[in-house]
Please model this.
Amino acid sequence: MTRLLIVDDEALFRDALSANFARDGLAVVAVGSVAAARAELERGAFDVVLLDQRLPDGDGLEVAPLALRVNDATKLLLLTAFPNYDHAVQALRNGIHDYLSKPVEVAEVRHAVETLLRTAALERVAEVHRLTASYDEAGALFIGRSERAGDIKRLIQRAQETSANVLITGETGTGKTLVAKAIHYGSARAKHPLISVNCAALPETLVEAELFGVEKGAYTGATQRRGLIELAEGGTLFLDEIAEMPPATQAKLLSVIEDRQVRRLGGERSRVIETRMIAATNVSPADAIAAGKFRRDLFYRLNVVSIALPPLRERRADIPLLCERFIRELAPGRTAQVAPADLEELMRYAFPGNVRELRNILERCLILEEGPQLHPARLLDAAAGARATKSAEEPGQASELAGAARPLEAVIREHVLRTYDQHGGNLTRTAQALGLSLSTLRRKLAEYGRLPPARRDQEAS
Ligand SMILES: Nc1ncnc2c1ncn2[C@@H]1O[C@H](COP(=O)(O)OP(=O)(O)OP(=O)(O)O)[C@@H](O)[C@H]1O
Ligand SMILES: [Mg+2]
Model:
């Protein structure tokens, strides 16, 4: 249940707001001082905190840092009778998300809270790429000069020129998300939103409401809102990990694509939509279809343009160029290059985490080493290297195995961090790969100072 904390010392206003939000189905706690607000926050997290600025024992802003520490996804709304520029800046610095000046109508507050909740819900399930970020992304083109890379660039270009749906396949870290961005920002849709949604992270109970939207009263407490398909109008909806979408939802998505219309949950009328779909999966579509996870009819609708990204080990010729680009991007102004012997080893390595792994290894190397010659080979995963060369007898492997004894804890640490990077920072998958429980993995990452900020339901579950 959505939790709202109201901090205001005007009893009448506080009660009116409380009654209103309680009717909307929110769990409301209302207090009249900074101290009381602190006490409530110590007891538990809130989704939205409404802060009056002038309180008997201090400034409502003082509550903001604590609220965000308890839950960094909390949305903060400040109400003030004394709006001024300095204060607004101060408020933003304290993490305030919205700002209303008193006197204010209850309806206005309700509208602001609804917007904040909607934003919070979107942040949980989808990433809305902003135009400001887009110019960088457009420049971040697919790098590679191998034949395979050339084929992919041609496909990207073709996809940019049309509005046909696209299905991108490839192992983790091969650049699926990058290609989706390149297509969107290189197309005529670039001025419209690119919204990406991770189907594996969407709780099954929410997925349809999020994708298709909701009409007021569709279920208890439902307020009207647009779904992601509508929000991406004119632009692109990127459906990541499409094979993880519940089959019933896949069927609905299929009819949206076929009819070019979407009907919100509980709604009567359909709206015409002009949203391009790009889907991605890191499992083989054929296998997912055979296993009954991915609907064949939806697959055909999405697979109009089909982009299969090869694993990095199948386009090794691109490794030197990728190294050059990543070094330039990660350490601008620094003249460094991979030592020739190390480059040779990189060219033999299996790269289970693909381009992402290469990038992460170089990033670590640039931090660890100061000289102009980088030695990333020592950061490679020995086990994966053995798989690549198919022979444990190779000299490189032997010396790795016979290398100077290191404290076990250091080896574990390196292995955990490398696996974590290979899985793109996905806690669930890393824990599975390592055979650790999520809580053990979290503890270890915290020890190593690498615990990510709390996010995404998928990883918390
Ligand atoms: N050809 C490429 N040129 C430049 N950078 C690339 C290329 N391929 C991948 N990258 C970089 O590698 C990293 C991983 O790529 P991306 O996130 O697109 O992979 P993905 O296939 O979407 O992975 P996942 O399956 O885990 O979602 C990103 O930093 C991306 O910019
Ligand atoms: Mg991705």
